[in-house]
Amino acid sequence: MSFKVPTVGVEEEYQLVDPQSGALIPNCKEVMRTIRRNGGSEEAHSEIQHELHLNQIEMASDVCSSLEEVRDALTQTRRMLIDAARSNESELASAGTNPLPIPADEALTPKDRYQAMTDRYQQIARDLFIFGCHVHVAMEDRELGIQVMNRCRRWLPILQAITANSPFWDGVDTGYASYRRELWAQWPMAGPPAHFDSLADYQSCVDDLVACGAIKDESFLYWDIRLPTRVPTIEFRAADVMTRVEETVGYVGMIRAIVMLAVSEEELGKPIAPIRPSVLSYAIWHAARYGMNDQLVDPESCEMVPASELLNRLMTALDPALKATGEARPVEAFANELIKSGTGADRQRRGGELSSVVASVVSETVPSAILA
Predict the structure, then answer these.
(1) Signal peptide span per the entry (predicted)?
(2) End-to-end C-alpha distance for the chain, whole angstroms
(3) What is the mean pLDDT of residues 77-106?
(4) DSSP state of 231
(5) Range of the domain at 209
(6) How far apart are alpha carbons 70 and 177 in whole angstroms?
(7) What is the tally of structural domains in the chain?
(8) Which pLDDT does position 372 carry in this prediction?
(9) Is the residue at 107 inside a domain?
(10) Cα 239 from Cα 84, distance rounded (Å)
(11) Rounded distance, CA 179 to CA 174, Å?
(12) What average pLDDT does the segment 50-62 reach?
């Protein structure tokens, strides 16, 4: 196999929380004003954005050519956001949900797109206090992108399991490793993408969705893997935002290698094993329910296997691509830590009272490079 190492980008959605109670607080406007007053986010190599609710704030990195650039962007951006949050009597927390009771006030971001979404989807939108991590990998050829998307679907369950970081919701332990996924799955255009025979088949699906009123345009597709309309990438959207910078760095490297493997297999004409949509949907639900603490479903073989075994299958498949990048170590370290200590959800459950859980998340959100 031959591999070309593509560029990548990462987006993280963060919580703004009260330093004492750990509850979400809607001061995104104030934090963004502080960032602008301090000269913006250019030095952090990222863009800072609003999200649906004002207790959320999002970063989108510049295009990165290496995992070291990803690490630098995350570290510098988190440093800037932490400083700005603390200047406005709040803290930054990186986890898929906030463990404490959800806010009584909606505090929606006053933006036409968000207002339209809330008007249409009502309670689903009002409850959407969730925080994700999205990874972009360069994909200039959309026809190739469709086939890469087809080939990557099989890994969605293990990707859901390893990034699980939202066990608590509205003051209770939900029993899920990623309850964020269950909240997000209510969205009509969420979930795994279908298998498409070609770009024309995909475009026909988009046209049908527009015609029936499901979406306004292609940008309103929110599948776990999608081809964005604004940038020439393939985007992976299913992950909870992870708490530690090194987790995100390892995950970005893993996604990049998955795409590289899929491109190489497509170029070699390797057949794609068929995956039933219902099997894939169940496998992803099962991964969100149990994380790395139970057996998982391999949707390609329909086997139930230990979570560590499914992760090992992924790492074995990715080994040639990871070696080609010259940056296998952060990905291997991420995988090894998952086997050793579990996911962010596991750490949260070991955190004690819910306010203490938030405090631990806040502490771990701070990049190790700036702890001193």
Answers:
(1) none
(2) 43
(3) 93
(4) S
(5) 139-224+244-349
(6) 26
(7) 2
(8) 34
(9) yes
(10) 26
(11) 7
(12) 87
